[in-house]
Amino acid sequence: MLRIQFTAQDFARIRFAPRPAPLQELHAALTTAVTRRGGPLFAPWRVRVLRSLPAATDPLGDLVPAGRPPSFLDVLGDTMADGFEQIRATSPGLVRSELERVYGAVPAPLWIRGLRAGDETAWRTLHHAQQAAYETVLAPVWSVVQDLHREEFAHYALTVAEHGVAATLTGLAPGSRLHEGVWEWPGAAPDRDVRLDGRGLVLLPTFHHPAGPLLQDTPGRPAVLTYPAGPGLPPTAGRPAVPAETLAAVLGRTRLDALRLLAEPHTTTSLARALHVSNATASSHAAALRSAGMATTTRTGRSVTHQRTALGTLVTGV
């Protein structure tokens, strides 16, 4: 479980990153690729990414021999160049201590030892590896990531205005709770307790890491919580859409229309009204989509709300 402890000052310093951070999104994507997170919906993307990474990116693997990278890589630059400048400005003492933590008593590769000693050639190796990975993994879909971030930013702002900060935080992480100043994320690994102590918290959505939060907790900086957002599918620059006639032949025209409508949440009544069918028929279509894993149903009191899943989005292509 992840437990983040807030003070009153921290609640006043919660902010949402106004733009996506390329290096953070890159780290999230590479983590998903190498740890096989995301299940079958990410499988084709994972295979494509791992096959396409050039040899210039190999040094990045040296930075995570035990799965937890050095904290000085966690920066919020608006561009790759800005992010790398922030990394390069890390104090030599923090660079040394973090690389010692990552490697411990295990002999480090020569270029890692160069980083620890402040060698410029080693820092260029890191820069070139990050840039090569960005060009391969993120550059083709960066405009899509920017659009998704703007949507998430707007959703966050509206939710805070309507429901307040506490409800918004728990809404970002289904199953989490905020209790007596502690935000608890059950199931998040590894088990961690983080005290903000007035530093505040930056919320940063990621669209390449669907399996739980990533927390960057660097001394002297606001903590950064990178949380899963978006449709639950890796962003793509565009994929061939399945013809509507083909989908309608498999699902039926009305059920396909229902699946498309459920890109937004609908009650049974609103879905029936949009489809021009009875409530019973709309409920039947929602149940069929739910049993196929293409929709979810949430009950609140006497009302139920249906919404499309990532699989449903993948099927429709929109």
From TrEMBL:
<dbReference type="GO" id="GO:0003677">
    <property type="term" value="F:DNA binding"/>
</dbReference>
<dbReference type="InterPro" id="IPR036388">
    <property type="entry name" value="WH-like_DNA-bd_sf"/>
</dbReference>
<keyword id="KW-0805">Transcription regulation</keyword>
<keyword id="KW-0238">DNA-binding</keyword>
<dbReference type="InterPro" id="IPR051011">
    <property type="entry name" value="Metal_resp_trans_reg"/>
</dbReference>
<protein>
    <submittedName>
        <fullName>Regulator</fullName>
    </submittedName>
</protein>
<dbReference type="GO" id="GO:0003700">
    <property type="term" value="F:DNA-binding transcription factor activity"/>
</dbReference>
<dbReference type="InterPro" id="IPR011991">
    <property type="entry name" value="ArsR-like_HTH"/>
</dbReference>
<keyword id="KW-0804">Transcription</keyword>
<dbReference type="InterPro" id="IPR001845">
    <property type="entry name" value="HTH_ArsR_DNA-bd_dom"/>
</dbReference>
<dbReference type="InterPro" id="IPR036390">
    <property type="entry name" value="WH_DNA-bd_sf"/>
</dbReference>
<feature type="domain" description="HTH arsR-type">
    <location>
        <begin position="245"/>
        <end position="316"/>
    </location>
</feature>
